[in-house]
Amino acid sequence: MDRLETIVKLARNSNSVADIGCDHGQVGVELLKSTGVRHVISTDISEKCLKKSEFLFASTGFQSEYDGRVGDGLKTLNRGEVDTVVIAGMGGDLIKDIVTYDIGKTLSFKNFIIQPMTNPDVVRETFYKLGYGLEKDLIVIEGSKYYFLMKFSSLTDKKLEKDWFYTSSLLRDSIETYKEYLKFNLNKNNAIINEIKLNSSEKSDSRISELKSNNEKLRTLLEEKVEYK
Asked: What are the TM regions of this chain, as residue ranges (predicted)?
């Protein structure tokens, strides 16, 4: 299952969805085609991207179920306007900025489906502090890249996880892929360390130390944490 399919699966029980940073609008169209979602709001900071989204909805016959808006983050939405907000393809720190800009508005939405390109730990911690429960935490592979997908819900019990780098849901539902992800990053870090050693300097020594520390974390997760049942 790829990212698009996983997002659609996580959002399938919603009545209305806002796709933030919609790009060409594929998420919204697929939701209307294959789930019970009745209305989609697609937003993007780029008017050019939004026009492509508008064309896709019109060409697939969903123009009346679609609302396109140019704007940044959640700013184009009214409070409680949709059941579910999708934010996919952005960095974890940017996602944090988006959902903490107007916390009152953020809390008016029941569900968030998040696919961060970086720093998934930042996303988990942010939504925990906002009071959301983590309903699903998955990892999928597309080509040679790994992507985390999370569903946070105000209707799910808030649970404190031991570590923002892994969760019980992640280990339960994506354990084999997660093991592969950990090994991939361990090998990547080792390759970077070997490359840096060819051009050793005081600055590069600091980077090597950082990567080795990261590797210790990865080894600990591989050896101990992935045994969740």
From this structure: none
Residue 136's closest CA among 144, 145, 146, 120? 120
Structure token pair of residue 133: 């429960």
CB 135 within 8 A of CB 158: no
Which of 121, 137, 165 lies at the terminal end of a domain, its last residue? 165
Dist. CA 204–CA 116, nearest whole Å = 28
Tokens of 76: 């184009």
Q: Can you give the pTM of this predicted structure? A: 0.87
Q: Which domain holds residue 207?
A: 177-223
DSSP result, 195-221: HHHTT--HHHHHHHHHHHHHHHHHHHH
DSSP element (H, E) containing 111: strand 111-116
**Among candidate residues 52, 97, 92, 89, the one with its CA nearest the CA of residue 72:** 97
Cα separation, 114 vs 93, whole angstroms:
12
Are 12 and 45 in the same domain? yes
Give me the residue label for tokens 């209307």: 32
Residue 8 lies in a domain: yes
The tens digit of pLDDT for each residue in 191-200 reads 999 988 887 7
**Which pLDDT tens digit goes with each residue over 2-41?**
999 999 999 999 999 999 999 889 999 999 999 999 999 9
